[in-house]
Amino acid sequence: MGYLPGETFSKHVFFADKNNKPMEPDTKTATVYKPDGSTASATLTQVETGKYELNYNIPATANAGEEWKILVYAVKGTFARKFRIVFSIDSV
After folding, report:
1. Is residue 36 within 8 Å of residue 68, measured between CB atoms?
2. pLDDT value of position 2
3. What is the dihedral of CA 25, 14, 63, 39, to 10 degrees?
4. pTM of the predicted structure, to 2 decimals
5. 90 DSSP assignment
6. Rounded to whole angstroms, how far apart are CA atoms 63 and 92?
7. Which whole-number Å values give the CA distances from 26 to 15, 74, 85, in the listed order?
8. For residue 36, with 0-12 CB atoms within 10 Å meaning exposed, 13-18 middle and 19 or more buried, which class applies?
9. What is the Cα–Cα distance from 59 to 77, expressed in whole angstroms?
10. Among the listed residues 50, 48, 67, 49, the one whose alpha carbon sits nearest the alpha carbon of residue 9
11. d(CA 79, CA 75)
12. pLDDT tens readout for residues 17-53
């Protein structure tokens, strides 16, 4: 699914431990990798234990056909989990 320039990318993300039980990370980040090589931060808002709403406001200057990536990283004690989300920009 693509997004339009100026829209908000929104997705639920789930953090689970090695037994697939919901966990609350000690630290968590969501880094946006833009097509020009720069980075930005997306927000992670807790919905319930282990469940977060990830949001990123796509710039109005984003170009159709671009591929954007978000790397989500979470750490709980010595356990770490990371995953990548990819989305594209559609034409208006």
Report:
1. no
2. 87
3. 10
4. 0.90
5. P
6. 10
7. 11, 7, 21
8. exposed
9. 35
10. 67
11. 6
12. 889 999 999 999 999 999 999 999 999 999 999 999 9
